[in-house]
Automatic annotation (TrEMBL):
Organism of derivation: Gracilibacillus halophilus YIM-C55.5
Family in the record: Belongs to the prephenate/arogenate dehydrogenase family.
Keywords: Amino-acid biosynthesis, Aromatic amino acid biosynthesis, NAD, Oxidoreductase, Tyrosine biosynthesis
Domain ACT as annotated: residue spans: 296-366
Domain Prephenate/arogenate dehydrogenase per the UniProt entry, residue ranges: 3-291
Protein name stated in the entry: Prephenate dehydrogenase
InterPro entries named among the record's database cross-references: 6-PGluconate_DH-like_C_sf, ACT-like_dom_sf, ACT_dom, NAD(P)-bd_dom_sf, PDH_C, PDH_N, Preph/Arog_dehydrog, Prephen_DH
Length: 366
């Protein structure tokens, strides 16, 4: 059976979803966005089958609508669908990072032709816009679904079936639980990353050289501070109660930490760090899978033209496919580190052996 799927908001997430669904048999994709240049890009690159700047008309004839705009915009679009005279039944979902605002509207919909299932793929990037979209963005990611109270399981199954090409792992969560958990593991860390950047910027007034010293540690922990402020202000605003509660907890934790630094012994400081390390290492464990990780290898490389390409070529020549590659630090003339991620242990171990054979110094992440 053919389905007309309308993706409203063709940015990083909407564009990536469209790319991952684009080759599904029987799916006809229509892309809607308010930015003409985005629609033009989507059309030029065949990311969708058709583009439109007329949401009301497009939604009338759609079988499925994926709201992939900022939280507050998605909420308004859902209200709009409720006002439109629909041609037939429609399954509506969203991808927004906070679930309560949209679920509140979903529970008050007037039209019985709309079935709403909240959605949130737990994958993304600090980049935004359609140019950053990737077909494999959601591979292996947790994809949260929050059906409304009266939603039939068959509709959840229909949505999961549609989203199967994303290769994500679906879990059903209550919206409030979702918002509490994502505030801890996604939203709050973002706030802290931004605050660390502010702190560094303030200290730069005293030490102008500070940015030059920002190596792997600072860059790793603050990467997400480079995300789209317009998307994040929306998330913080929509989830402000949970954020405020977490800030209270954090301030208490920081007071204890200050006490520990001011008066604690080395053993206590060690214990604090060790407990955190233990928990963090456990998150990456393949068995526990709270953070779905790939199988990583760290490779030392030199800052020479073509050094990264040589590593990629070596693996490609041996038919080993990389899932991800990240440059952790490259300082002029000094060794940098590449993090290579593989989908399975076999690829990880084969690559490690190969790289060592060709003289690379590697470290494997067990
Ligand atoms: N970026 C992430 O890491 C991430 C991950 C998971 C979920 N999300 C959620 O996905 C949603 C989209 O985020 P993104 O990262 O793709 O942002 P983005 O900025 O890349 O894309 C948003 C798109 O929505 C469009 N848009 C804005 N107003 C619109 C309107 N009125 N009608 C139609 N389109 C409109 C923009 O032009 C843009 O193309 C957000 O709700 C965000 O919370 C983001
Ligand atoms: O990888 C990133 O840059 C992200 O911030 C992705 C991330 C997150 O993990 O916090 C951000 C927001 C989302 O709603 C889901 C995923």
């Amino acid at each position: 059976m053919s389905q007309k799927v309308l993706v409203a908001g063709l940015g990083l997430i909407g564009g990536s979803l469209a790319l991952s669904l684009k080759d599904t048999k029987g799916v006809y994709l229509i892309g809607y966005d308010t930015k003409p240049s985005t629609l033009e890009y989507a059309k030029m690159n065949a990311i969708v089958d058709e583009v439109t700047d007329d949401f009301r008309t497009a939604v009338k004839h759609a079988d499925v609508c994926i709201l992939a705009a900022p939280v507050s915009v998605a909420v308004e679009l859902l209200k709009t669908i409720d006002q439109v005279e629909l041609h037939d039944e429609i399954l509506v979902t969203d991808v927004t990072s906070v679930k309560k605002p949209i679920m509140d509207v979903a529970h008050q919909l007037q039209s019985d032709q709309i079935t709403f299932i909240g959605g949130h793929p737990m994958a993304g990037s600090h980049k935004h816009g359609i140019q950053a979209a990737k077909s494999h963005l959601f591979e292996n990611a947790i994809y949260v679904l929050s059906p409304t109270r009266h939603c039939h399981q068959a509709k959840v199954d229909q949505l999961e079936a549609l989203l199967t090409p994303t290769n994500s792992k679906f879990i059903v969560l209550d919206p409030d639980e979702h918002d509490e958990m994502t505030s801890v593991i996604s939203h709050f860390p973002h706030l802290i990353a931004s605050s660390l950047v502010h702190q560094a910027r303030n200290w730069q007034k005293k030490h102008a050289y500070i940015p030059k010293l920002a190596a792997g540690g600072f860059r790793d922990i603050t990467r997400i501070a480079s995300s789209n402020p317009s998307m994040w202000k929306d998330i913080f605003f929509q989830n402000k109660e949970k954020m405020s509660q977490l800030l209270t907890d954090w301030i208490d934790e920081m007071k204890d930490l200050k006490e520990l630094i001011d008066t604690g012994g080395q053993d206590q400081i060690y214990a604090y760090l060790d407990e955190a390390k233990d928990y963090r290492d456990g998150l990456d464990s393949k068995k526990k899978g709270a953070i779905l990780s790939y199988y990583d290898i760290y490779v030392d490389i030199f800052d020479q033209p073509g050094a990264i390409l040589k590593v990629i070529e070596l693996l490609a020549k041996h038919d080993i496919s990389l899932r991800n590659i990240e440059i952790l630090e490259i300082r002029e003339g000094i060794t940098g580190v590449l993090r290579l991620s593989f989908q399975d242990k076999n690829d990880q171990q084969m690559s490690d052996a190969l790289l060592q054979k060709y003289g690379y110094s590697t470290m494997i992440d067990e």
